[in-house]
Amino acid sequence: MYIGNATHIKRSFGLVRGKNDVIDSKRLCNYAAKHADEIKATPALNPVLLELKDLMTARSKLLRQQVTLANYLKELRLFNDKKVQQILERSHKAALAGLRESLEEVETLIKKMVNQEQSIAKNFTLISSVPGIGYLTAIYILCCTNNFSGNITGKQLTSYAGVVPFEHSSGISVRGKSRVHRMVNKELKTMLYMCAMAAVKHYPEFRDYFERKKKEGKNGISIINAIKNKLVLRVASVVNKQKLYVDNYKIAA
């Protein structure tokens, strides 16, 4: 079985009119025939990773609910009477506590499931060795890449994560800025932003890099994006080489 990118397949049909099951089947058959030399069987999806994906999705939803409720109560403080505010906060206290408890339970299950399979646990350890990469980001990357079963390169992963700017120019008429493509995994991109900020704060290599580029006049967001790119390339490297990350910057210092 081959699992392809739906948008890529749809756009490959060109300008089309009409749609039903019979027409779609013929178009898919034509696509498969034209790209027969490129299409390869998609590696079997690991059932443990599928369960991890469900748990990560559940965690994201619980976290959004917790943040929404906390922000709602915070906004009410701006114009509510103190007595009324206390009543509202007491009435929502159980809900917030329940969400925190559910989050802790889901995260415990996630950590437990990672250790169930040796190949997942090994790659998780390798990814976690990269500076700035937290355990949730490491697990999310494993879920997105199906535990790197398709020999994913660093270039492919950086493009998927939305940390690579693409040129937008044509002759002398189009002189657009290089931008990150909008078709990216936004959740992974957000996670990597937090990883990059942690790397700048806690690791001398990235802090020095940020300060050096800032002095050169680079935009702060562009520098953070470059750091995200570095982190993703290192993640792909340690997994493909099956070696823990070695902090050469620290050794050299």
Key words describing this protein structure:
single chain, 2 strands, two-stranded antiparallel sheet, about 250 residues, mainly alpha
How would you explain this protein's 3D organization?
It contains 11 helices and 2 strands, in the order H-H-H-H-H-H-H-E-E-H-H-H-H. The chain folds into 3 domains: 1-42, no CATH class; 47-116; 154-252, no CATH class. Helix 3 (47-76) packs antiparallel against helix 4, helix 3 packs across helix 6 and helix 8 (186-202) packs across helix 10. The mean pLDDT is 88. A two-stranded antiparallel sheet has the order 1-2. The radius of gyration is 23 Å and the shape is globular. The protein is mainly alpha-helical.
Domain count: 3
Radius of gyration: 23 Å
Shape: globular
Helix content, binned percent: 55-70%
Largest sheet: 2 strands, antiparallel
Order of helices and strands: HHHHHHHEEHHHH
Low-confidence stretches: none
Kindly name the structural category. mainly alpha
Give the spatial strand order of the biggest sheet: 1-2
Report mean pLDDT, rounded to a whole number. 88
User: Count of DSSP helices?
Assistant: 11
Roughly what fraction of the amino acids lie in strands?
5-15%
- Count the beta strands: 2
CA-to-CA gap between the ends?
50 Å
